[in-house]
Amino acid sequence: MNLIPKDGRGSYDNLLGDPATGPTVQVSGVGTAAFYVAKPGTAAFNFYRGDAFVAIVLITGGGSPIDQATVLVRTRRALVSVLQ
Question: Does residue 47 contact residue 73 with C-beta atoms inside 8 Å?
Answer without folding.
Answer: yes
